[in-house]
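Subgroup meeting minutes
Present: P.N., E.W., G.H.
Scribe: E.W.

1. P.N. recapped why we're keeping a running log of single-chain structure predictions: easier to compare across weeks, and new members can see raw inputs and outputs side by side.
2. G.H. added today's entry (672 aa).
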Amino acid sequence: MNLKKKRLTMVEKLKNIKLKDLGKNKSLIAFICCMLISIVSISISSYAQSGFGLIDVQVIGFTGLDGENLVAKVYRPLTATETNKAPGILAIHGFNNDKDVYRPSAIELARAGFVVLCIDQNGHGFSDGSFEENWDNFGNSSYFAAWIHLKSLPYVDTDNLGAMGHSMGSLEIFFYFPYIISDCDAMVLETFSPGYYYHPTLNAGLSNYTLWKNVLHIWAEKEEFQLRSTTTLPDWIALGLGAIDAMYGLSGTANFDTTYNLTAGGWTDGSMRRHALIPTTHPGLTANPKAIAEKVAWFLQALQGKSEAEAWVIANPAGQVWIYSEAFGLIATLFLIMSILPLGVLLMRIKFFKDVNQPIPEKVIIQKKSTWWIFAAITAGVGAVTFLTFTYWLPQGFARLSGATSIIQQALTPLFNIGITSTIAIWLLVATGIGAVLFTIWYVITWLKKRKDISFYDMGVSYATKADKEGLSFGKRIVKSANPKILGKTILIALILFAWMYLWVFIADVFLKVSFRGIWSLLTTFTVARFIRFWVYLIPTLLFFLVIGGVLMLGEMRMKEKDSGIKTQAVWWFKVTIAILGGLVVIILMQYVPMWFGRAPFFNISGVPGLENFAQHYPLMELLLMLFIPLFAVLIFVMIFFYRKTGKIYLGAIICSFIAVWISVISSCMYI
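Output recorded in log:
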């Protein structure tokens, strides 16, 4: 009876809700809008991944030759069946990528009638193992097991098989396939100069590709991993053309078309060769319409017997649909992250969480705009200098730390074995340490000058003002300042927001076979090993957001409120972003602007004492900035928003650390 009364009461309450009243709840409307946009966008991304209903996409698992669990994604055109088999293609991603980096090519190839198997190599994505295991274990690596699995699929025509690889994947095809795989009928080597594959001191097969059947080589006009500061782009192209001349005994550029492409040989004996120069960068090859069209046209001719004219009609870049999957995946990711802002506000309206919503401290510490900009320039400079100084030490993690003792390696590697993420962790720790020292110096100088007391309440750190702590013992003052009750609720809100995002990522992974991504890997589900490392790498990242993003930016350097909340959020976001990321923006501009004027990247240095390691590994880090800068710009927005809602640095710092480490841990490869 009581239950029936409760149900009636709930119905009556729902009937009494008016749309006009709902319209006043801006946070609820914003939350609903963000989630609708995110859900619709990720659904479109999934539908586009299926070629708008023409492709069956499945995530599969199989066992590697060493017994490890491997994961791949299969793109099967619906026309491919056991009675109507289709040619099969294995796609091998590069270092620090995963199976979805080849999603654009896989979509277009599947639309053209090919079954495409995109693998997560050992130590990458969802596959077990490590980078060393995949790279050093000749003949037993994940790509070899994937080749065997591709041929076992009942709808694959095993008489017509091909393989394509980008960056590290192209090297695995070039150097290993001839010795362990004999039934590959066509190959695509993607990236690096023709001269990179040319070895005149080795046998003729390695010199002119005759050990391989029907090879397409796609190289980037702006190849970060080989250009040096002393080389112009015309020099770079000339070196590549010279290598092609040497391979085939050609003379002069008359053998090439006006875009420096060369096609020679014949299909029947497997001697067909093509070198295609694409106006893009190293990572740009996997998401470039011209490069994708080259692959589709090549495999259509090699494996389906199409004429060149027929192949290019089908491969036409103007008809490609992969961009919808990537673009809407990115939109879905952005609005999923944005949904936690109104959701956080709605949670703080619940009685249990209401005390998390604290007022912003009234005192603004730095009054002069000129002083603020000086401090901002110092912060930006520290970020840039420490990035240039420390990120090249560990591009591949602690396991490869040059000069380290085996004890250090053994102690650190089991926990810190995600290469690029280890590099970022060290950089964030160093930058945070320097920021803490500079803050301490400023605080001491301020105290010595006998200015007005600057409390940690004013910094957004303490929950208690000076008056709140008067007459209390030292221990009680600490408890009053930390306020474990409110801080605990703050952490709980952050965990709820994190769980909310993870729920939708899980749903997309399981039911839509798609992750929240756009060109780069962004949000996807964890493996057990990566989830464990998530909590390890969370520590340095959280310190960074608490000290640099919190105490410095929103405490010491907090700005005055503007005449509206929207204006305050916009101005603070713009200025804090400049302070934290400005130095990194300068670095990436210094690296790439020379390319606009026909020069090599600025930091690709050769022959400079002490910078050899830097020159060798820096392209990895400059590419990372392409993801790092926009990601942290979004997180800075989130951090400021939650500071203005809670008056404290904690909620924004915690949830931003969760997101940053989540993306970093799932997108980097593992060592050991």
